[in-house]
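Much of our argument rests on the idea that a fold can be written as discrete symbols. In the encoding step, the backbone of a single protein was reduced to a row of integers, each denoting a local shape. We regard such an encoding as a compact summary of how the chain folds. The record that follows shows the chain in one-letter code together with its fold in token form:
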Amino acid sequence: MIETRIEPPKPLVTITVDGVEMTAPQGATILETCRDADIAVPTLCYLDTLEAFNACRACLVEVEGSRTLVPSCSREVTEGLVVETESERVVAARKMVYELLASSVDLSLVDGETAMFMERYDVDVDRFGTADRPVRAVKVEDDLYIRDYDKCIMCFRCVAACGPDAQNTFAIDVAGRGLKATIATEFDIVLPDSACVYCGNCIGVCPSGALMFKTEFDMRASGDWRPEDQTVSRTVCSFCGVGCNLELHVQDNRIVTVTSPMDHDVTSGHLCIKGRFGWSHVQPDDQ
């Protein structure tokens, strides 16, 4: 007989967020508590399916008694904690984070949530200028996906997805220091010669457009990319029996990209090379 161990429920602590008293399980983070209460807090490096990196500082909140603002993605709740998520100090810090990022990278293709918060905080992307922004050629080394480092915000999501949080391939990591830091393969070799297994999970977690399907990249270059005209259909991958769910993004009756639901119990948004890229056989080039 297989025994299933049931963990006892965690004790609850009482905290106050934006003047509202609420309870949260001991060990939960401020960010998790806020999201459970439908309180919007911006994030860049954080993702529910990955370990918190504490890299971006977009999720900073103000905690009573704390000298500095604290990252809500990693700060655990404690009894009596008093939190403000939209104080004047918090809004100024978040606005600064986005504006400093814009001075060094291209934020034109950030995800919808980030774009919404940038508009909400009236972010001026030209505030600090772009004179020192590096200009690097887009890396196109295969027919599956591209790397555009001019859009990389160094959130480290791709490193986590390639490493211990999903794929465990460890094909990429951080190279260099300071403003010269970048995400690179081992010894900066070309992607096809690296340890990359082309699962594409790095693309699935990238929030800035630095990693992109080659199909999307080509369609954007030709002016044919129209996300507003795309439909998304969920299906089950047929390549094996694991049961991964796929989201087929279809434009003009052709699949253009494939993603997986973050909340799917089997995948948590992650796929293998077959699920992510193995759809070309359903639409031959002569169609």
User: Anything to note?
Assistant: The CA atoms of residues 41 and 88 lie 14 Å apart.
